[in-house]
Amino acid sequence: MTSTTHGEPPARAAADGDRPATTGTDNRPATTGTGNRPDTTTTSPAARRRSRLRTAAWLLPLAVVTVLVTAQALAAYVPPDLHTSRVPPRSALHFGLLVAHIVTAAVAVLTGLAQSWPWLRRRHPAAHRWTGRTYFFAGVFPSALVGIPVIHFTPLGLSNQASLAVLDALWLLTGLAGYRAARQRRYADHRVWMIRNYALTLVAITSRLIQPLIEHLVAAQLTDPVSYAGDTLAAGHDIAGATSWSALVLHLLAAEYLLQRRGRPTARRPAKAGTTPDAPGSAPRQQQSLRVSA
Fold first, then answer.
1. Is the pLDDT of residue 255 over 90?
2. CA-based nearest residue to 188, from 17, 21, 7, 16
3. Compositional bias (Polar residues) spans (predicted)?
4. How many CB atoms lie within 10 A of CB 38?
5. Helix/strand/coil for 212
6. 140 contacts: CB under 8 Å, gap ≥ 6
């Protein structure tokens, strides 16, 4: 679960100068961060400050919301107590699996947040590598596996079960694809898959944020004789299903939008005095550094 680059011998590095480092098997220039566009044109202090501000603008709000919602979710299950469970447990086995699923999912949420920090990957690649392994092997992988029986036992209707099954399958498959790409040193592909995977990890956060809105919409139709006719069980199932499906679709769209935006060519700017323009017929350096493959 890492995106690190290989070191070069000193002589080779000196000869290459400031050319972008390449990783993987496709010789694509390495990119940095998960939320920033890399800056291959300048390393001035002003540019670095702007980059840090851009990162803080999305990472800090994400961190605050994610930590608060995760802490609230864990409070109902740690320490384990059947009476505080937000999902009605069918049995002690169901509750035990549910607790294991939620705790490992929380590990994935929090370690994935650390993996989203560009500074950690650039300055401490070893920490990024170990955090990534924790994210997958102590978070995503066990949580997705335990999630299979949890989904079967969940008593919130077939629509909710279907959405959770789709989420669980995509979560596991994108995680495996990202891990495989990292093992093969295809780091650009690794980052693409892990952006998708962490977007799926955060579905649990968004679903808790949008559930009050879904509850309000359903409550407005609760007494309608054509809709629910006062059937609170059917209304509860619809709330669970609509919430989970809405969060899943929203995150799938957001992840693909982010990936497309990161790979979108940027307008070429006139070369500054003293710089070498791009060779005829070649893609601009900025565009090359932003290109990712799905």
1. yes
2. 21
3. 284-294
4. 18
5. helix
6. 108, 171, 172, 175, 197, 201
Closest CA to 142 of 181, 107, 188: 107
Alpha-carbon span 33 to 118, nearest angstrom: 4
Domain that holds residue 258: 51-265
Whole-Å CA distances, 37 to 28, 52, 176, 287: 15, 11, 25, 10
> From CA 13, how far away is CA 11, in angstroms rounded?
5
Question: Count of domains in the chain?
Answer: 1
Q: Model confidence over 205-237: pLDDT tens digits?
A: 999 999 999 999 999 999 999 989 999 999 999
Q: Which two tokens stand for residue 82?
A: 């059947």
Average pLDDT of the chain is: 80
Handedness of CA 190, 130, 112, 33 (dihedral sign): negative
| Three-state DSSP state, 36 | coil
Q: Is 31 a domain residue?
A: no
Q: How far is CA 83 from the centre of its chain?
A: 32
What the block records as the tokens of 284 is 């601009």
Q: Is residue 26 part of a domain?
A: no
pLDDT value, residue 294: 37
